[in-house]
Design brief:
It contains two helices and two strands, in the order αβαβ. The longest helix has 16 residues. With 61 residues, the chain is of the alpha+beta class. The protein has one domain. The chain has a two-stranded antiparallel sheet with strand order 1-2.
Length: 61
């Protein structure tokens, strides 16, 4: 996010919710270390589009 905000124009990006991703990975690792089997499948976590000035046409144009 920091790089996307610092560019000119500020870039639109996707906030992938890395805190939640890390939490899920940590919980999975703790389960495996504890001897529990890994739950197969795909886990979908929410993300959001952060729209900045790189989307659409320039102001006044």
């Amino acid at each position: 996010q920091i790089v996307a905000e610092a560019t000119r124009p500020p870039l639109t990006s996707v906030d992938m919710n890395l805190a939640a991703l890390g939490r899920e990975a940590g919980l999975t690792l703790l389960s495996l270390v504890g001897g529990e089997p890994a739950e197969p499948g795909i886990r979908k976590l929410p993300c959001r589009l952060v729209v900045r000035q790189s989307c659409g046409r320039p102001l006044g144009g």
